[in-house]
Amino acid sequence: MPGGAPDRGIPEATVARLPIYLRALISLSEHGIATCSSEELATAAGVNSAKLRKDLSYLGSYGTRGVGYDVEYLRYQIAREIGVTQDWPVVIVGIGNLGHALSNYAGFRSRGFRIVALLDSDPARHGEQLGDLTIRSLEELEDLVAEHRIAIGVIATPAASAQQVCDRLVAAGVTSILNFAPAVLSTPDGVDLRKVDLSIELQILAYHEQRKALATRGAPRGVNGAAVPAASPTPAAPAASGPPGPPGADPRDHRMGEPA
Amino acid sequence: MPGGAPDRGIPEATVARLPIYLRALISLSEHGIATCSSEELATAAGVNSAKLRKDLSYLGSYGTRGVGYDVEYLRYQIAREIGVTQDWPVVIVGIGNLGHALSNYAGFRSRGFRIVALLDSDPARHGEQLGDLTIRSLEELEDLVAEHRIAIGVIATPAASAQQVCDRLVAAGVTSILNFAPAVLSTPDGVDLRKVDLSIELQILAYHEQRKALATRGAPRGVNGAAVPAASPTPAAPAASGPPGPPGADPRDHRMGEPA
DNA sequence: CTCGGTTTGTTCTCCCGTTCACAAACTCCT
DNA sequence: AGGAGTTTGTGAACGGGAGAACAAACCGAG
């Protein structure tokens, strides 16, 4: 039993939910609600109340039995635990469509993140004004990171240059990277890396959507009648994206040999 | 063990990785590589080779012992399993900065997703041309979903209107939703919902960053969020906002509560 | 045909995360 | 002051995923 400080080792799954709780608490606070039960907060956050209580218990015993949680108090405690009571300077590399959107995203600044630099490799973009920031050359990366003591970098470049940019960020001293490029990046130990891949999210939805369509049809699955590429190095074209039509038959074959 | 067709119940964690494998296979294919081992593919995907093999085993026994996997063959099998051999019409609601970026995102079309409608509630935006699409009124949502048989919707609106848009999408027949709005949405059973929250990802990084900064300082505890590099402007301790102050004085509290 | 080398598919174990259920603790009312 | 009613915090059971290890299966050489 912790007589004093709560254990600093917070499970990763819990850490991932703390920002959701924080957002829910801010919302409650803005609605003038001063106190809430674990059940109410859990509902607002979209999780189970038992899970919420266990998550909060990792932070300490904030909250009062028989009453619930003081919204402002808990909000501050979570914010402090996450670190958003501090000011985090951030650099965004790659100011395409996505980088553009990210630099304007209001949710960053309101959570303690301050975008201090926008970098792009395209000289044609240098000098372009975005809000109160100017797009600068990638060559200034190292100086800017050092000058502003930037610890967090966002990669929004094409996949081809993502690893290169990542390496430069790490070399310059960035120790946390958020990657939007559709590429697998590798970083040395001590550097945290998270990724957001928009098309992967859609593909996961597509998988479940396909299963649902299959279930309601009751019929065995079927895609367009394209032939399955053979198991030999034959560059067949499996794309075959056609107009929405009735599904054809599918050879549900997965054996690749015959038993001896 | 399954003597016949592979079990249709693929673990969620595996489903989430299949698009990564697919991307890695496409990359290998474009480099002219016809065959690869689980070790190579696992490296390209950034995962453990044992995990990769187990994941693939849920799909069936594609692959040849002693040889490896045929890149084109496996690529097609995964694409079919995910459902990206089909054509998925998608509607995007909320064409702000993010919606704008999403509508231009090349990764969607190349994965079988076809954006067929851009909707926004702001009349000033209606008629605006984005690529080969025109921003239309939200009032056309129901008709468009029915006409194109849209099953997947993307919400990129502000948080305040997200649930309302979500409800309309569901009512119109959409059964899979990707939510970018920073809000917790609720959907009826049978409707899949995934969320991408940009600021949450940064907050998770901030947590680890804070821990790293704390560890290098050697101060295990007792340091409030102010003793960090750079200048932290305003920790913004929430002044007791009203009668219900923080509950009883907490021993590990720093400066929050006034002694009752 | 047989043997050695290689790689997959699977099994087993361990660990993390989720959920249930309940004692402890606090408030309010009498 | 005491009891009834709530609500938190936590111990314990449960389920799923991750990783290591191994047997089965395939290719090629002699």
Fold and architecture overview:
- The structure is a homodimer of 260-residue chains.
- The first copy, chain A, is of the alpha/beta class.
- Helix content of chain A is 40%, strand content 14%.
- Chain A has nine helices and nine strands.
- The first copy, chain A, has helices spanning 12-30, 38-45, 49-59, 71-82, 97-104, 106-109, 141-148, 159-172, 198-217, and strands at 35-36, 69-70, 88-93, 113-120, 129-130, 133-137, 152-155, 176-179, 192-195.
- The first copy, chain A, has a seven-stranded mixed sheet, sandwiched between helices. In chain A, strands 1-2 form a two-stranded antiparallel ribbon.
- The radius of gyration of chain A is 25 Å and the shape is globular.
- The first copy, chain A, starts with 11 loop residues before the first helix and ends in a 43-residue tail after the last helix.
- Residues 1-6, 220-226 and 231-260 of chain A have low confidence and may be disordered.
- At the A-B interface, helix 1, helix 4, strand 3, helix 5 and strand 8 of A face helix 1, helix 4, helix 5, strand 8 and helix 9 of B.
